[in-house]
Write a structure and sequence with these properties.
The chain is mainly beta. It contains one helix and ten strands.
């Protein structure tokens, strides 16, 4: 009798492990390195992007050049990189889950136009921010697209120099479970000084 129970337990555990293998085998990860450089006179540019829902090209206007610090009104050239890691899994109920980890680092240099000439100020900025997001879909094999925002805290030498910059990203998962991530825009937000 004891041997029969032990055999049932071993068979039961083996079945659970075998059922779990497709879930583990379905895990996929991707890493995206997205550099950005916003320097020079602020302006705008019309670019073509692919609509995530229709797949059709569309024209959008994006900001270019330096940001304007909303606290000091000086221009700030910003250079950095966002590293976005994704992990896609399917649980035993067939729910498709995408875990997204975003880490952004960079620096900024302030400048003003003095007598018609761009002149560096003593304002230097650094930022390192990160966040984690999870998206869930009812089943694998569905296409999915969503936008998300990463809030970056620009830290200057003085408290009055601190302000928020927002990086907007789009994540797209195709029916095969492949992930694409790209930045759609960056904009200066509010003064935190």
């Amino acid at each position: 009798m004891a041997a029969l129970k032990r055999h049932q337990i071993i068979v039961g555990l083996s079945a659970l492990l075998l059922l779990g293998l497709p879930v583990l085998a379905a895990a996929q990860s991707s890493t995206f390195i997205i550099p950005f450089e916003r320097v020079g006179m602020p302006g705008t540019q019309v670019v073509t992007q692919i609509d995530p829902f229709t797949g059709e090209p569309m024209q959008v206007t994006v900001d270019t050049g330096a940001f304007v610090n909303p606290c000091t009104l000086e221009y700030v050239d910003v250079i950095g990189v966002s590293t976005i890691a994704t992990l896609q899994t399917i649980d035993k109920f067939g729910t498709f889950k995408v875990n997204v980890s975003v880490n952004t680092k960079g620096t900024g240099q302030g400048w003003l136009i003095v007598n018609g000439v761009p002149t560096l100020t003593s304002s230097n900025y650094g930022f390192t921010d990160g966040q984690q997001i999870t998206f869930r879909l009812p089943a694998a094999g569905q296409e999915f697209s969503s936008d998300f925002v990463d809030k970056l805290t620009m830290k200057g030498a003085r408290k009055i120099d601190n302000w928020i910059l927002r990086a907007h990203f789009r994540i797209k998962v195709n029916a095969a479970g492949e992930v694409q991530v790209f930045m759609t825009k960056m904009n200066a937000d509010v003064c935190k000084g």
